[in-house]
Amino acid sequence: MPEETFFALVKSVGVPAAFSLGLLYSIWKAAGWIATNLIGPIVARQLRFFDDMDRAFDKQTGAIDAMAKTVDALRTTLHAHETLLQRVLDATDDHRHGRRDA
Q1: DSSP letter (8 states) at residue 98
Q2: What residue spans define the domains of the chain?
Q3: Is the pLDDT of residue 73 over 60?
Q4: What is the pTM of this model?
């Protein structure tokens, strides 16, 4: 606020009222500076952090899905091997006891 404006305000409303208005104006300007220079960068940094976390969670979800598919494939393969091994063992057992394929 220019000095001439402040002195004109003092003459028109009195010293206590002009001082109060000047104080309110200073608080208003300080709050604007704090919002722009302190709060704004903090909020922007926090939003970037949330975006980074979202991307990390997406990558992690993809990795977990790939691992689940791999585990399912391993289970299927193990089940097939187990079935085949059981057939071989049954055939060996049948051969030992003199039984032939029916």
Answers
A1: T
A2: 3-96
A3: yes
A4: 0.53
